[in-house]
From TrEMBL:
<dbReference type="Pfam" id="PF02687">
    <property type="entry name" value="FtsX"/>
</dbReference>
<feature type="transmembrane region" description="Helical">
    <location>
        <begin position="440"/>
        <end position="473"/>
    </location>
</feature>
<dbReference type="InterPro" id="IPR003838">
    <property type="entry name" value="ABC3_permease_C"/>
</dbReference>
<comment type="similarity">
    <text>Belongs to the ABC-4 integral membrane protein family.</text>
</comment>
<feature type="transmembrane region" description="Helical">
    <location>
        <begin position="409"/>
        <end position="428"/>
    </location>
</feature>
<dbReference type="InterPro" id="IPR050250">
    <property type="entry name" value="Macrolide_Exporter_MacB"/>
</dbReference>
<feature type="domain" description="ABC3 transporter permease C-terminal">
    <location>
        <begin position="272"/>
        <end position="392"/>
    </location>
</feature>
<feature type="compositionally biased region" description="Polar residues">
    <location>
        <begin position="69"/>
        <end position="84"/>
    </location>
</feature>
<feature type="domain" description="ABC3 transporter permease C-terminal">
    <location>
        <begin position="731"/>
        <end position="846"/>
    </location>
</feature>
<feature type="domain" description="MacB-like periplasmic core">
    <location>
        <begin position="497"/>
        <end position="696"/>
    </location>
</feature>
<feature type="transmembrane region" description="Helical">
    <location>
        <begin position="494"/>
        <end position="514"/>
    </location>
</feature>
<feature type="transmembrane region" description="Helical">
    <location>
        <begin position="779"/>
        <end position="799"/>
    </location>
</feature>
<feature type="transmembrane region" description="Helical">
    <location>
        <begin position="362"/>
        <end position="384"/>
    </location>
</feature>
<keyword id="KW-0472">Membrane</keyword>
<keyword id="KW-0812">Transmembrane</keyword>
<feature type="region of interest" description="Disordered">
    <location>
        <begin position="60"/>
        <end position="84"/>
    </location>
</feature>
<dbReference type="GO" id="GO:0005886">
    <property type="term" value="C:plasma membrane"/>
</dbReference>
Length: 854
């Protein structure tokens, strides 16, 4: 009880100092809880949607998958007669055929895409009784003919659509227009998909190209019949060539793609939260180390009156527990706010998430509080242990916590060993022959060098701070020299404070190097390898009508088609490979200048010929002149002669196997030929600008595709990587904010620690302005110390990562010096900002009271 009272008294006696440490715990816990609440809410949203939309039993083609687009662009389908067969099964109350396709684009009169911008699909189909499970018609009526359609209310509201408006639907079977005659509202949250409905004959004809096909059959059970029993009955009726699923099985399959997407988001965000926790550990260690140092005399008195080492230790740990509990509880509440903010952000991006589905599982706050408390207590353990070692007599003499030179030497040796091991791992990664092997060594090198720099930080602080001070502070005379001495007074504290900032900036520097190198490598590869003037592609394959519009565009010397086909290759050594092949026009050899190690690419576009990549050829012992069996999905098996081996030391089309369009047509039926994945074009000589404008005009009616010249393509690549990096930087900002709080806390506690000294300096003539400047300079040096270590470490990581990327064809290493310099200079401003409050408080000290302080 005495220990608890002492801890409580000390905790509330240092409210301001504890508050800064609590903020670090709060932010870290908030990010963890916010991530969990956000992902749980998304899961709840999709669970409700899938559970509501699924019929008791669904019958679909055996090869159909919820997240796949078939090779030919049309959904997998089954005969309409299946509905009658299913109806005859025991226990069936009703059965109806349904049509559904996600390979469509819907545009308004101005050719504006009605689809969601955030990645959610556009879904087109027929209106069925099963849709009444999840939707209700709130305006107008269901479509009754080929010129009518119905849209969902969210899409209508987003794009200001009304009854009578005309929309054009683009699919692989052609374009058709229809007027809105109805608006249907979701009964559950719509995650963002745009949904359009047609009558059944129109959906069959326009989406499937046949009026006697459905994509699935919805089956509802009679009273008293379970889903499992109904599934067995239906299976007995059919011939075994169908995929039959209960409502739960169907929902689970739909969840697979969502779980994969959500898993990436969840673990990436938790990773950044972990970085923030790691940075927060340094803040907490520094806080308690300084508090213990300031209470040395008090600890001595406690020991003198009978307190044991364990009691002193527990006293500090109880304070840490209180700090962890307060910070964690506040963090849980803030985490819910973060989750709601993320939901709003996703809604703005096109994925609608309602707060009605906000899901806070009991495990979330428990995990948040436990994690916050455990991390805080572990961080405070070393200072607590050090406090317990203070001898009563040394403490009463105000000798401070015991300095252990041997421990410092051991620490330095451990740091050097870890750093050396990490450096060796990075070297090994950079010289690896395979990216998969090198990536493991890269991960080991990053971890070891990071830990090594943290451990060796106090030793580095002495040399680096002196160099920085010589460059930045010596010009400020005695004030600058005092700032330097203050930063060097406690190297362990300076090292820990700088290390907190080092972690975030090391990751920033690493990602900047990797991102810049990727852009530079891709740009170099484009300049070297791409001969096409224009590239056309989109999120969906290019429908035939858009292909024709491109081919008819004036001013083009040639247009190249590029199709990806599913196929199984059997090499001469008898091994099979399901990676497929690429069919293209012979002009593709001009549009993409692939280097060949044997044969010529032009020959690969000959009759019954093909090319393979050098990695495939090496792995299977394939040479020019060998024959490979290629079994085309939905087609025949061809024996194709290898006419070229392309060099896989490239980032573009690495590993592609080329055949000609004519060879493809010989072995693949017309209804199984896929639309183009991408298309290329070359302008007539001297007609580049005119051809570019004409091509854009020709494809104006198809907004789902982008027309780019090489300049556009490079810029978009740069923008995409830039957006990704900006998002990552935003997440890393959390760690940097925590690091800044650490600098503030260190300076604030340092000012309190030096109260008497500050009073004496003021008494002999140091002005308030000089005092504040001294503290600001000290803060700037500490911040730049952390920045220098972090940026140097990060550039080393980034350079090694680029060596691995070079194995994948991205060979250019580019250091983004403007970014690196900006971050370094920005760190100085961070130091100034962090010193504002401590410097202000130091300047307001009463001189006489400060001198009288023990």
């Amino acid at each position: 009880m005495t220990v608890l009272k002492t801890s409580m008294r000390n905790f509330f006696a240092h409210k301001g100092r504890m508050a800064l440490s609590a903020v670090a715990v709060l932010l870290s816990v908030a990010f963890v809880c916010g991530t969990l609440v956000f992902t749980d809410t998304m899961n709840t949203t999709f669970d409700k949607l899938f559970a509501t939309t699924a019929s008791d039993v669904t019958v679909a083609p055996r090869t159909a998958k919820s997240d796949d687009t078939p090779q030919n662009g049309k959904p997998e389908s089954l005969p309409a007669s299946t509905v009658q067969q299913v109806t005859k099964a025991d226990g069936v109350k009703s059965a109806e055929g349904a049509v559904s396709s996600m390979n469509v684009t819907v545009v308004d009169r101005d050719n504006k895409n009605m689809g969601a911008s955030g990645g959610a699909p556009t879904i087109a189909g027929n209106w069925t009784r099963n849709d009444l499970r999840s939707m209700e018609i709130t305006s107008g009526h269901a479509p009754r003919g080929p010129t009518e359609l119905m849209v969902d209310a969210d899409t209508a509201e987003k794009h200001h659509l009304e009854l009578g408006d005309e929309l054009r639907t683009i699919s692989v079977t052609g374009d058709f227009t229809a007027k809105i005659v109805g608006i249907a509202t979701f009964k559950v949250t719509n995650p963002g998909a745009a949904v359009v409905y047609f009558d059944t004959p129109t959906a069959q004809r326009e989406l499937l190209g046949a009026t006697d096909r459905f994509t699935q059959v919805y089956v509802n059970a009679a009273t008293g019949v379970s889903d499992t029993q109904l599934k067995r009955n239906v299976a007995q009726t059919l011939d075994g060539t169908y995929k039959i699923q209960t409502a739960k099985e169907n929902a689970d399959e739909n969840r697979e793609g969502v779980d994969s997407f959500m898993g990436v988001i969840k673990y990436a965000m938790l990773g950044f939260a972990g970085i923030a926790f790691l940075v927060g550990i340094f803040l907490i260690i520094n806080t308690f180390s300084m508090l213990v140092a300031q209470r040395t005399r008090e600890i001595g008195l406690m020991r003198a009156v009978g307190s044991s080492r364990g009691q002193v230790n527990r006293s500090v740990l109880v304070e840490a527990t209180l700090l962890g509990v307060v910070g964690s509880i506040l963090g849980v509440g803030a985490g819910v706010g973060i989750a709601i903010g993320l939901m709003k952000l996703m809604s703005a991006a096109g994925m609608n998430l309602s707060t009605d589905d906000l899901t806070i599982k009991a495990t979330t706050p428990i995990a948040g509080v436990l994690l916050g408390v455990v991390v805080t207590v572990l961080a405070a353990y070393l200072p607590a242990r050090r406090a317990g070692k203070v001898s009563p007599m040394a403490a009463l003499r105000d000798a401070g916590t015991p300095a252990d030179g041997k421990a410092g030497l051991v620490r330095g040796l451990i740091g050097l060993v870890l750093t050396g091991a990490g450096g060796f791992a990075l070297y090994t990664a950079g010289t690896a022959d395979k990216a998969s092997e090198g990536s493991l060594m890269l991960a080991a090198g990053v971890v070891l060098t990071l830990i090594g720099f943290v451990v060796i930080g106090p030793l580095l602080a002495g040399g680096v701070v002196r160099v920085l001070s010589a460059v930045l502070l010596r010009g400020f005379g005695p004030v600058g020299r005092m700032a330097e001495r203050n930063a060097l007074r406690n190297p362990r504290r300076t090292g820990a404070t700088g290390a907190a900032l080092m972690i975030g900036l090391a990751l920033v520097a690493c990602l900047s190097v990797v991102g810049s190198s990727m852009v530079a490598s891709a740009t170099s590869e484009l300049d070297k390898s791409v001969g096409a003037d224009f590239i056309v592609q989109g999120n969906q394959r290019i429908v035939p009508q858009a292909e024709k519009a491109m081919q008819d565009s004036p001013g083009l010397a040639h247009v190249t088609r590029y199709k990806e086909l599913l196929a199984t290759l059997t090499s001469p050594d008898g091994k099979k490979d399901d990676s497929g092949v690429t069919a293209a026009d012979p002009t593709y050899a001009q549009d993409l200048r692939r280097v060949t190690t044997a044969g010529t690419l032009t020959a690969a576009y000959g009759k019954d010929a093909m090319s393979v990549g050098s990695d495939y050829a090496k792995a299977h012992g394939v040479h020019v002149g060998d024959t490979i069996d290629v079994a085309f999905k939905g087609g025949e098996t061809a024996k194709l002669k290898v006419a070229a081996i392309t060099d896989d030391d490239s980032a573009l089309d690495q590993g592609a196997r080329y055949i000609s369009i004519e060879t493809m047509r010989k072995y693949v039926p017309a209804d199984q030929i896929p639309p183009n994945t991408i298309m290329f074009a070359k302008a007539e000589a001297g007609q580049s600008e005119q051809a570019y404008a004409a091509l854009k005009k020709s494809l104006h009616d198809y907004p789902q595709y982008q027309v780019r010249d090489q300049t556009d393509y490079k810029q978009e690549l740069k923008d995409q990587i830039g957006q990704l990096l900006n998002m990552v930087y935003g997440l890393l900002a959390l760690a940097i904010i925590v690091a800044v709080l650490g600098v503030v806390n260190t300076l604030a506690l340092s000012v309190v620690e030096r109260t008497r000294e500050i009073g004496l300096m003021r008494a002999i003539g140091l002005s308030r302005r000089q005092l504040r400047r001294m503290i600001r300079m000290e803060s700037v040096v500490i911040a730049l110390f952390g920045a220098l270590l972090g940026l140097g470490l990060g550039m080393g990581w980034g350079a090694t990562a680029q060596k691995l990327l070079a194995l994948e064809g991205l060979k250019v290493l580019e250091i983004p010096w403007p970014t690196i310099i900006a971050v370094f200079v920005g760190s100085a401003f961070v130091g100034l900002l962090a010193a504002l409050i401590p410097a202000f408080r130091a300047g307001r000290m009463n001189v006489l009271n400060a001198i009288a302080t023990d």
